[in-house]
Amino acid sequence: MSYTLSEPYASVYEEYLEYEKTRVTDQGFESLRGRAKNFMKWLEEEDLLFEDVKVTDAIRYKKVISERKRKDGKDISTGTVLNYLKTARSVFRYLVLVEKIKSSPFEAVKNPHVPEHISRNVLTESQMNRLLEVFSRYYEFENRDKAIRRYRCHVLCEFLYASGLRIAEAGSLLESNIDLEHRFVYVPEGKGNIPRTAFLTGYTADVMRLYLEKGRSIVMGSYSRKNSRLLFGAGKARIGSVLNEELREVCNELEIPVITSHGFRHSLGTHLLRNGCDMRYIQVILGHESLSSTQIYTRVEKDDLRNSIDEFHPRQYKQIEKEAEKCIADT
């Protein structure tokens, strides 16, 4: 964000970021920087000093954010509005903490209601198997660079679908974080900056073993890489971008819903539930702090049940309609 803040907004902005830097993940910090600067810019444009902001101003900021549009012209999501509002509230809580102001007007502003739902970023078990099968045939490319690119994505796909890690978590891993003997993945910085342990399937452990023994050196090549110490040889932004491009290509080729890297996590939670895995186990596997976060996957199960009863129940409207028409014709 190229906009340059003036005083006193610039100083508070830098002090606030310094305070929050050790409290969030690297990915979270980058997002926080943008939202906090956006908020400071709004205060500056409105000529509002921190100590002069009233509840009415806080409500007005919520309204301004809610009316913003995305680049494609669509409304921004309720979740995005909530994140901007949380950032504004966090800034003012910091100001109260350091005694620059006495109270925060944003405490009186209600959060927008964000409905709990499972993302559509999910494939069925059959679709996932077809997707992974295509990625496993990386060796069919005659172009060496394309084959290597697809191979790294093959490893990433299997890794994400087995572990349920977010792409930011996978992108921050080192080789030393992987314990193939016990099939553990040690995540030093999970969501909320909380370390946790993820798990690998036996098949994925074999894929990772081959990658670490032979494949990684091929992916890395003979030239120096900025992030050569990282497990996948690139930071989260780069591997996420490359993987999403490949996913779009393969999903379109297979004529299945296009998912992103996060779709492996959503699909894993959904598939585990469908196959009878205990909800508490899914919570641990996905690293959810609260069971309520895991319970959104039950909504998918209920949708499946509703669709199934419509499809297979003997008393379907269409069938009854046909019988009625036949009865009327016979009379």
What are the defining features of this structure?
single chain, 331 residues, mainly alpha, three-stranded antiparallel beta sheet, 14 helices, 3 strands
What do these coordinates show?
Helix content is 58%, strand content 3%. The chain has 14 helices and three strands. The radius of gyration is 25 Å and the shape is elongated.
Strand order of the largest sheet: 1-2-3
Please describe the biggest sheet, giving its number of strands, its sense, and whether it closes into a barrel: 3 strands, antiparallel
| Ends distance | 76 Å
Shape: elongated
Structural class: mainly alpha
The parts where pLDDT drops under 50 for at least 5 residues are none
Fraction of helical residues: 55-70%
Give me the count of strands: 3
- Whole-number average pLDDT? 84
What Rg do the Cα atoms give?
25 Å
In DSSP terms (H or I, runs of 4 or more residues), the helix count works out at 14
Strand content is under 5%
Which H/E pattern describes the elements?
HHHHHHHEEEHHHHHHH
Oligomerization state: single chain
Topology, element by element:
Elements: H1 9-20, H2 26-45, H3 55-66, H4 78-97, H5 125-135, H6 144-163, H7 167-171, E1 178-179, E2 184-187, E3 196-199, H8 202-220, H9 236-254, H10 263-274, H11 279-286, H12 291-294, H13 297-312, H14 317-330
Antiparallel strand pairs: 1-2, 2-3
Helix pairs in contact: 1-2, 2-4, 3-4, 5-9, 6-8, 6-9, 6-10, 10-13
